[in-house]
Structure to design on (798 residues):
């Protein structure tokens, strides 16, 4: 009897695999290797810098406000250059600035913010650099203007005076 | 035009020859004194027809005959001649024709080289192989005919995906296919042997050569793919646990395990069930690989064809083969022949069996990681991707006992033995542990696991290294392969522990500086290639020791299809690779610069070559035995 059960259960397992693969064929997709350019806010779990709390990104960008997501790091020289612009933008009440602290240590990052001021309403701690990839980021610094869960505009490299004006125009 | 017609008809003719072969085999099987000469000549003719068909496709590519749909979709007049030829198998239809070519070639070689085997066994193997061949013929003719016409004839083709225009990738598919398809012979032969109940030491010794040759090709094929991914995809690594890499790794794991089982079977008539199941799974895993990457069910670099009809065909075909082989296994296989009576704990076969279970474990981890996302997507329409952390967490801890057994196992004798020179083995272990503590001591994170891991890899390394100079040294093949494996694990470990990376965005003239290195973006050059334009960034990198290096990564913009690829600039030295790649940043003057220092990269490639060289030695030795 025992000898009969084994073959049948194996056949059964393979039939299930077959059905799953068959269903899987209905929704296939093609993909070419390239950097991600999604326009929606990705839904991923992230760790907060201040509280070590783990939350979903969608909880951060939940209101209909404008958000500026800024990827920065204490070791990144151009980040220092754009910092005054972020400080200026942080005065604006219609804009929330969210930082992603990229491949950094907490101590260095805190020192950086102590020296130059903290423009961020909230900071995501990404010491492995994996969250930044979810956003399709190329490197640091980089900023994304977000509204209603959509990425409206992507700024690669440090923010300039020009981009400052542009962001202000968007918010109005 | 003419060649397409010839190619098409020889393909159809080849299919009919397959049917004839069935008929003759059935007659020959009943009155089996000698092998019918018709069978041999028909097998040859079938192979010949596929060769003609394949050559026709190559010629259509060389002459840029755009009346052929496959050529139109994948070639272009400005493409260099080398890539026109390589383009033949750089697409779905052509690569399947290559599969078929190797399938028919291998069964021909099998028939020629097995004159001393029984006729029943040879004929039955041919029948099983013809089932596979006919399946591929139908698949090719019905759903992916490489000789479809288009009218009106276009004047220019669509071009080959530029990331595939690369020398390593041009030979990667043929080599890999020799490995994949070689496993089809093992599959057919094991089914025939099970049906006739002739699995014996003699059979094991005869099939060993096929196992070895497919294993060598599979190893080299994976290596080539990995080298290509390293410098062409610009992701800066050699293995990403991408589904496509996984589907080539799974047959490799099964085949490696099979190889070790065959070794045991050759000496002692045990593990027959292992051998049968592993032979079946090696080939079905190779086929599933084809299914998974060709049907578009997985996201990957290799997904050329996104035609559900094709996916469905392979799926049904694959499962028919699986059910057929399961049926044969359960119906014909008599387990009573195994006599596990004289099994001793301290013996070579015990060590092999333990490590086989580890291999099976690694295989199931990779299998689950690869197909779980599909299951989840179908059952709950949730999309996830399984990344490296999953594999690392599940595989790395088990590598430790695996490596230790790999070091001790070959020291044991068959059937029953005592471990000799224990003091020497023990002292080598102590040396390995001390040495790895010395290497790791500056790294605070994961101190314990890294030390143990490096110790066990070093242990295997020292033992195999010492055996090269030992007097009573017999098994060069095994020792070379195991030495290569220890070198591979060591190189991978050092590579991942001591790699460093800088990612930044720079404009021409800007400088990036931190504690590790200083990168100066000097200038930007433009260059014209045969079918692309390129932008070359010139960088000067100064590392923390003050050593200066020039690196010039390149961006290529191909004319047809209009795709940008990034060519990494890699400076290879014996101890480490300096790797730099740039990427365009849309509508900005910034370039994304990624600079990596990767130690021991060269040794990863060398060690894999050593591993397959071990297989080659064993193969050559087997040839001389006769």
């Amino acid at each position: 009897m025992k000898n009969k059960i084994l073959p049948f259960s194996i056949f059964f397992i393979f039939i299930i695999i077959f059905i799953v693969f068959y269903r899987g064929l209905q929704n296939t997709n093609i993909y070419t290797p390239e950097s991600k350019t999604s326009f929606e806010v990705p839904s991923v779990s992230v760790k907060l810098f201040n509280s070590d709390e783990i939350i979903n990104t969608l909880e951060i960008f939940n209101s209909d406000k404008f958000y500026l997501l800024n990827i920065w790091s204490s070791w990144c020289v151009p980040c220092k250059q754009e910092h005054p612009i972020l400080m200026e933008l942080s005065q604006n009440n219609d804009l929330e600035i969210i930082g992603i602290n990229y491949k950094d240590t907490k101590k260095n990052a805190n020192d950086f913010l102590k020296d130059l001021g903290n423009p961020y309403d909230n900071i995501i701690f990404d010491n492995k650099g994996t969250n930044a990839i979810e956003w399709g980021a190329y490197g640091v610094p980089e900023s994304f203007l977000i509204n209603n869960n959509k990425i409206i505009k992507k700024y690669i490299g440090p923010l300039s005076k020009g981009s400052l004006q542009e962001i202000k125009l968007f918010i109005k | 035009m003419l060649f397409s017609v010839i190619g098409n008809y020889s393909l159809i003719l080849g299919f009919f020859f397959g049917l004839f072969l069935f008929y003759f085999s059935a007659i020959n099987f009943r009155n089996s004194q000698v092998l019918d000469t018709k069978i041999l000549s028909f097998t040859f003719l079938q192979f010949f027809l596929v060769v003609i068909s394949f050559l026709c496709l190559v010629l259509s590519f060389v002459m840029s005959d755009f009346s052929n749909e496959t050529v139109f979709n994948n070639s272009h007049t400005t493409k260099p001649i080398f890539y026109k030829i390589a383009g033949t198998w750089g697409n779905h239809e052509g690569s399947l024709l290559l599969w078929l070519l190797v399938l028919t070639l291998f069964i021909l070689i099998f028939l020629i080289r097995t004159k001393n085997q029984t006729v029943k066994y040879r004929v039955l193997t041919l029948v099983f192989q013809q089932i596979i061949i006919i399946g591929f013929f139908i698949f090719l003719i019905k759903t992916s005919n490489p000789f479809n016409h288009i009218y009106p004839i276009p004047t220019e083709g669509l071009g080959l995906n530029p990331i595939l225009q690369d020398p390593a990738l041009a030979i990667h598919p043929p080599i890999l296919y020799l490995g994949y398809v070689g496993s089809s012979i093992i599959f057919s032969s094991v089914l025939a042997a099970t049906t006739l109940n002739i699995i014996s030491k003699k059979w094991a010794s005869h099939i060993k050569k096929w196992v070895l040759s497919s294993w060598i090709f599979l190893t080299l094929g994976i290596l080539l793919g990995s080298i290509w991914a390293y410098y062409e995809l610009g992701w800066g690594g050699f293995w990403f646990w991408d589904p496509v890499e996984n589907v080539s790794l799974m047959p490799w794991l099964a085949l490696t395990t099979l190889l070790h089982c065959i070794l045991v079977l050759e000496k002692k008539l045990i593990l027959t069930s292992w051998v049968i199941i592993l032979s079946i799974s090696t080939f079905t895993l190779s086929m599933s690989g084809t299914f998974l990457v060709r049907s578009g069910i997985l996201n990957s670099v290799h997904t050329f064809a996104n035609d559900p009809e094709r996916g469905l065909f392979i799926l049904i075909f694959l499962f028919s083969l699986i059910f057929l082989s399961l049926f044969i296994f359960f119906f014909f296989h008599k387990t009573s022949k195994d006599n596990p009576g004289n099994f001793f704990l301290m013996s070579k076969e015990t060590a092999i069996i333990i490590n086989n279970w580890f291999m099976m474990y690694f295989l199931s981890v990779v299998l689950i990681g690869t197909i779980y996302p599909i299951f989840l997507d179908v059952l709950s329409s949730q999309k996830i991707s399984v990344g490296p952390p999953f594999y690392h967490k599940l595989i790395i801890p088990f590598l430790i006992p695996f490596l230790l057994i790999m070091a001790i196992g070959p020291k044991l004798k068959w059937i029953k033995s005592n471990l000799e020179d224990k003091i020497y083995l023990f002292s080598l272990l102590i040396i390995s542990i001390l040495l790895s503590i010395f290497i790791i001591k500056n790294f605070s994170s994961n101190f314990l696991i890294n030390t143990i891991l490096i110790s066990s890899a070093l242990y295997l390394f020292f033992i195999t290294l010492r055996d090269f100079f030992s007097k009573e040294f017999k098994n060069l093949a095994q020792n070379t392969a195991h030495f290569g494996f220890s070198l591979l694990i060591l190189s991978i470990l050092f590579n991942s522990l001591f790699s460093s990376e800088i990612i930044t965005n720079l404009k021409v003239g800007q400088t990036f500086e931190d504690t590790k290195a200083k990168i100066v973006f000097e200038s930007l050059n433009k260059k014209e290639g045969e079918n692309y334009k390129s932008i070359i960034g010139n960088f000067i990198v100064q590392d923390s020791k003050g050593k200066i290096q020039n690196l010039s990564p390149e961006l290529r913009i191909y004319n047809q299809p209009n795709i940008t690829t990034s060519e990494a600039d890699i400076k290879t030295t014996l101890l480490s690779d300096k790797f730099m790649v740039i990427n365009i940043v849309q509508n900005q003057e910034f370039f994304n610069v990624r600079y990596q220092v990767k130690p021991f990269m060269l040794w990863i490639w060398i060690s894999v070559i050593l591993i397959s060289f071990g297989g080659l030695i064993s193969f050559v030795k087997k040839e001389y035995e006769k």
Chain A has six helices and seven strands.
